[in-house]
Specification:
Layout: H1 2-19, E1 21-28, E2 37-43, E3 50-52, E4 59-61, E5 66-72, E6 78-84, E7 96-105, E8 111-119, E9 125-136, E10 139-151, E11 156-163, E12 168-175, E13 184-189
Antiparallel strand pairs: 1-2, 2-5, 3-4, 5-6, 7-8, 8-9, 9-10, 10-11, 11-12, 12-13
């Protein structure tokens, strides 16, 4: 019985992987060993998390993207190092959408994830996020983040940028609709805390 359950689990997993839609596939040296690695993001396309709107056939996709890191091997292959199923932003509501998801890796192996959140009802706020990660000490850690929130009714925009390596936070308040309104900028120190690992939190929350 246990063997049968394991077999069915493997078959189900393989079926879901076959439906995955690749969103990003980036080659870069993440761990700085001189061998190219790969950062990949896929949409699982689980049918249970797809919903079609009856009025016009529009498809809502409530699947959470999955980010995986493959480390390059000396023989030229890539081996799956870590798979992050529960950290990428996604929509679980038909009135809230993830807008402009972007994933990039710099020449120095720094991983950046950027996206916006748009609510078609219930909120005037339109936030956008940027998370910056780096491989160090055997894992991938969050070293910086930025959140910018725009009030669509007033134009007031507040942007907060945090550098977890220098322990500094910058807050900028401005009006996106009126350039004549003076921009306000404030710098503060943040408490020194252990860096958070990629996968230990949900981006955008």
């Amino acid at each position: 019985m246990k063997g049968l359950m394991l077999f069915l689990t493997l078959v189900f997993s393989a079926s879901l992987q076959a439906q995955e839609k690749e969103m990003f596939n980036i080659s870069a040296d993440i761990n700085k060993d001189g061998i190219p690695d790969v950062v990949k993001v896929v949409n699982p396309r689980d049918p249970d998390k797809l919903q079609v709107r009856e009025s016009d056939g529009y498809e809502y996709d409530f699947n959470q993207p999955v980010l995986s890191v493959y480390l390059g091997q000396a023989d030229g292959t890539q081996k799956l190092w870590k798979r992050y199923d529960h950290c990428m932003p996604y929509s679980d509501d038909e009135f809230v959408f993830i807008d402009g998801l972007g994933v990039s890796v710099s020449d120095k192996g720094v991983i950046t994830v950027e996206f916006g959140v748009f609510a078609s009802a219930g909120s005037y706020s339109a936030p956008s996020y940027k998370y910056v990660f780096r491989y160090q000490n055997g894992d991938i850690y969050l070293i910086g983040e930025e959140c910018s929130s725009l009030a669509r009714n007033t134009g007031i925009q507040e942007t907060t940028s945090i550098n977890y390596l220098t322990h500094k936070k910058q807050t900028v308040l401005e009006n996106a609709f009126d350039e004549k309104v003076p921009k306000k900028e404030k710098w503060t120190k943040i408490p020194v805390k252990p860096l958070r690992r990629l996968g230990s939190f949900q981006m955008g929350e």
